[in-house]
Specification:
By secondary structure, the protein is α+β, with helices and mostly antiparallel strands. The protein has 32 helices and 24 strands. The protein folds into 4 domains: about 230 residues, Cytochrome Bc1 Complex, Chain A, domain 1; about 180 residues, 2-Layer Sandwich (Cytochrome Bc1 Complex, Chain A, domain 1); about 200 residues, Metalloenzyme, LuxS/M16 peptidase-like (Cytochrome Bc1 Complex, Chain A, domain 1), CATH 3.30.830.10; about 200 residues, Cytochrome Bc1 Complex, Chain A, domain 1 (2-Layer Sandwich). It is about 40% helix and about 20% strand. Strand 13 and strand 14 form a beta hairpin. The protein is globular.
């Protein structure tokens, strides 16, 4: 739950330098920066249009794609009291069409072009971004310029009301209906004084959204969304001269907006300790202690980050040693999230209720840990871990064009300096032990903090201390008389903006060239050699996974993998973690679905050292009783907490309805409380000895090394002895003669989780399953699908609705899914059923067929960019023994597809009479609604 230092540095260096907050420096008219020797830089060209729009271009011809990011320097911190949520609301409105782009067309155009798109909002900025094949760049620039200059004429009361409902649904799904969902909001209210821009959450208060009208929203756009408050960043396979011409054509005529001054940092201090208690649907009490500190890119930010890592960054930390390893906390960590105006030093722990009756006890242990740190001080390994994590995370963060574009955009938006990668490396590498101790004494020791206790409903006595802070009544200003009709400035063009730019010639896309080999113990291995970054990404896959569990010991594979992440015969858990952290490497074991997997990432220069640790973990696990008892207890507590999560309950119900009561595949990978209780340490050892063998193992690797070099690095596997085993096939699943509604009770839920499900096709690459996925795309597989446009855009019942065919080697199913407003549960089910029935009866249109064909074929340009995407491609090749040219076969099938063929698949696979309905919500409140569906209602209990 804590943000590790390595993760934070990646965020700062490669993704969200957008949170940096020093005084902006006026950019030069044009700056060109080239890569310097022995330093890490992102090459870029920067210039400014006459209207104030800053443009950054980055060339990267390694893949035939481009990534476009438009970042506006406006987030929830620019909002007025009583008008919270405006920036996030406008993120939604910016996808509702503009003067020359119809409603929902932005999603359709980008999807049909083979691209992906989204937008995000935080306290300090809003950004919109697209990744598309390189030949679609002009189209993206036309779209982004249109909503920058021509949005307001398309904004009306109907769209406003619809998106207000969507935002409310998003808040309900992510905040109000989620365990711990209110934690951040309550912390911000207590930490920052009334009126401080961080005293309200980005998603805002529902009452504020209800208070405002469409003209308030228009005025907000007019104030903050001008080109002079924006940064346009374009990276990838671009022609710089042509790109500059398109930028000038589409963005140049957009008039400058009101002048915008950079906000001054507003760090805060507390005059007393504040305690807040949140009663919630939780099993595990949560303690969060937050100290106010500095602001992003303040000189003390880096040493505070290092301090957070030492205290709570993984298994080498003091929090792990004193809280997690001792069993008093299920999870614990420390982080130092920073934003433009202020930073927070957060100490977090999820209590183990078997050992901690009150959070006051946990807080005492936290205080004692801080005292221990002060006595212990900072050692050399602490700093080496920091430097190793920084170097690795920075280099891994440069593997995608989107990562580099985000870094450039954020650096420019908040610091006037796009490329801050080397600067970030330097500032963390220069942190000394003395710096860390100084900031501890200056910002943490003896300082006042906000302590939030999240406790089970009805048990306020479990809080760390009685609540002494309550948010005072909000002083809401009266109506803004100036927020009348907002007039759009006239823009004169020398071309017709109603014409959608044509795409250039489609880039030629080939699957990555890969090599095959068989390692000494008989392990099939596939690899890609790519010189883009000096890194290694590797997975070792052992087939069987949870399918090998005895029915009464479900969770055995999962728990065995967890034990493989613990101590070995020659290293303690902490010592192993320390060695890996100093290298900046990662080695992790996991088990879910059909596979146990060993995931490895390393800088190439440290591969040998990393593989030595892989060998230690794989061949010499200690299987200590102490580790086993701690992990088993932690899993039990996590399972109990999961039973408070509506999405988890819905997935449990889905598996039970599809596969029955007494079947391994109807239970989660981690098992249940009952099956977990049956597992002993001897079972772990037996599972390891039977199934951790090379007999059903495969390896995929993506690196800058040759086949021979990678095989050499894995030569230690030659001593691994095969021991064959059989992977069971499961059957005897329940049959239903009619559709029923299975209800899982979630009292007082503000939303209902709804599924329509049936067993369906298993995976194939070019057969009926593949055709079913093509058929499903217009129904529920895209944002512009029928079911999402109905439930989200037309009705406002949900934040998102979808349908999917999901298939593996031996099992497959169809699902339609949405988290819907509780009062609209029955209506949502009716609409979902109506759309499925209509699609089955009438089929897809020729226009929908063309939409699917373009989306599936043109997106190939984005398929293989990063090592992780290449690894996924290789894993699928091996898992299903696919032909090397299967992607070419798929492309040919898509291009020659007909509506008749896919409509026949819909007729066969979308029979509502074969589907069951699952609802997780307040059973008593929903009963009158569900009765209107005239279907049997069956209460469903889950263990």
């Amino acid at each position: 739950m804590a943000l590790s230092l390595a993760t934070k540095v990646l965020v700062c260096a490669s993704v969200a330098v957008s949170l940096s907050g020093c005084q902006s420096q006026k950019p030069a008219e044009q700056t060109t920066v080239a890569v310097q020797e022995q330093q890490v830089h992102i090459p870029y060209e920067k210039y400014t249009l006459d209207n104030g729009l800053t443009v950054i271009l980055h060339e990267d011809h390694s893949d035939p794609l481009v990534h476009v990011d438009v970042t506006y320097h406006v987030g929830s911190a620019r909002e007025d009291v009583g008008k919270s949520g405006f920036a996030h609301f406008f993120e939604h409105m910016m996808f509702q069409g503009s003067e020359h782009v119809a409603d929902e067309e932005h999603f359709r155009i980008i999807t049909e072009a083979g691209g992906t798109l989204n937008g995000t909002t935080n306290t300090d900025r809003t950004n919109y971004f697209e990744s598309v094949p390189a030949n679609q760049l002009e189209k993206v620039l036309w779209l982004e310029a249109d909503r920058m200059g021509f949005l307001l004429p398309a904004v009306n009361q109907t769209k406003f009301e619809n998106q207000r409902d969507t935002v409310k649904n998003e808040r309900a799904q992510r905040v109000d209906n989620q365990p711990y969902g209110l934690r951040s909001e309550k912390n911000g209210e207590a930490l920052y004084p009334a009126g401080h821009p961080y005293s309200w959450s980005t998603i805002g208060y529902v009452e504020d959204l209800d208070r405002v009208d469409v003209n308030d929203l228009k005025a907000f756009f007019k104030r903050w969304y001008g080109p002079n408050n924006a940064v346009l960043t374009i990276g990838g396979d671009i022609d710089v001269a042509q790109t500059r011409a398109w930028v000038e054509k589409y963005f140049g005529p957009v008039p400058r907006g009101p002048e915008v001054a950079d906000p001054e940092p507003q760090p805060v201090t507390l005059k007393e300790d504040r305690y807040v208690t949140v009663e919630d649907k939780v099993h595990l009490p949560l303690l969060q202690i937050t100290f106010p500190t500095v602001y992003a890119r303040h000189p003390d930010e880096a040493p505070l980050d290092v301090l957070a890592d030492i205290l709570g960054g993984g298994k080498t930390s003091l929090f792990y040693k004193n809280l997690v390893k001792e069993g008093v906390a299920v999870q614990a960590g420390v982080s130092h999230p920073c934003r433009e105006l202020a930073c927070e030093f957060q100490l977090l722990a999820l209590a183990n209720p078997q050992k901690v009756e009150k959070l006051a006890t946990l807080k005492t242990l936290v205080d004692e840990t801080l005292t221990e740190f002060e006595t212990r001080g900072v050692n050399e390994d602490d700093l080496q871990r920091t430097k190793g994590g920084i170097e690795a995370s920075t280099i891994f963060g440069l593997q995608s064009v989107s990562g580099k574009v985000s870094a450039l955009s954020g650096g420019e938006t908040f610091y006037g300096q796009p490329d801050l990668v080397q600067a970030d490396l330097d500032r963390y590498r220069n942190v000394t032990a003395e710096d860390v101790m100084r900031v501890y004494r200056q910002y943490i020791k003896g300082k006042h903090a906000v302590t939030v206790s999240v406790v089970p409903q009805g048990h306020p006595e479990m809080a760390a201390a009685p609540q002494n802070f309550t948010l005072p009544p909000r002083d809401i200003p009266g109506p803004d008389e100036s927020a009348g009709d907002v007039v759009t400035a006239e823009i004169k063009d020398s071309f017709d903006r109603t014409v959608v730019p044509e795409a250039g010639p489609a880039p030629t896309v080939h699957v990555p060239e890969f090599w095959k080999t068989k390692l000494a113990p008989g392990i099939d291995m596939l690899g890609v050699t790519s010189a883009e970054t000096p890194t290694v990404t590797l997975t070792l896959n052992l087939e069987g996974g949870m399918l090998l569990d005895p029915q009464d010991k479900a969770g055995l594979a999962y728990l065995t993998a967890a034990m493989m992440n613990e101590s070995t015969e020659n290293y303690s858990n902490e010592a192993l973690s320390n060695e890996l952290a100093k290298l900046g490497s990662s080695v992790s074991f996991s088990a879910s679905g059909r596979y146990t997997q060993v995931s490895v990432s390393s800088l190439t220069k440290y591969l040998d050292e990393t593989m030595a640790l892989v060998q230690e973990k794989l061949f010499h696990p200690a299987f200590n009783e102490e580790d086993f008892n701690r992990l088993k207890a932690r899993m039990a507590q996590s399972l109990q907490q999961s039973m408070r999560n509506p999405d988890y309950l819905a997935n449990r119900a889905k598996e039970k309805v599809l596969y029955g009561e007494e079947n391994r595949v109807s239970l989660p990978a981690s098992g249940t409380l009952e099956t977990l209780a049956n597992i002993e340490l001897a079972d772990i050892k037996d599972f390891y000895s039977k199934y951790y063998t090379p007999s059903h193992a495969t390896i995929v690797a993506v690196s800058d090394l040759t086949q021979v070099q990678m095989a050499s690095a894995l030569s230690f596997l030659s001593t691994w002895q095969p021991a064959d085993y059989t992977i069971p096939v499961f059957s005897d699943f329940p049959e239903y003669d009619k559709t029923q509604i299975f209800v899982v009770d979630n009292p007082q839920a503000v939303q209902s989780v709804v599924y329509l499900v049936k067993r369906a096709l298993t995976f194939d690459a070019t057969g009926d399953y593949f055709l079913a996925r093509l058929m499903n795309f217009p129904l529920g597989g895209a944002f512009n699908s029928r079911i999402n446009l109905n439930l989200r855009e037309d009705k406002g019942y949900t934040y998102g609705a979808s349908t999917s065919f999901i298939g593996g080697k031996t099992l497959g199913w169809f699902e339609a899914h949405a988290n819907v407003t509780a009062v609209n549960t029955a209506d949502s089910i009716k609409e979902m059923m109506k759309e499925i029935k209509l699609y089955r009866e009438q089929g897809m249109t020729e226009e929908e067929l063309r939409f699917m064909q373009n989306a599936f074929t043109l997106s190939d340009a984005l398929e293989y960019e990063t090592p992780s995407s290449k690894v996924a491609f290789l894993r699928q090749l091996l898992a299903y023994d696919l032909a090397d040219d299967y992607r070419e076969t798929q492309t040919s099938l898509i291009r020659n597809m007909t509506t008749d063929r896919l409509n026949a698949v819909a007729q066969r696979e979308l029979n509502l009479d074969e589907m069951q309905i699952i609802v997780v919500g307040d059973a008593e409140a929903l009963a009158p609604q569900l009765a209107t569906l005239d279907l049997p209602v069956v209460p469903l209990s889950l263990n």
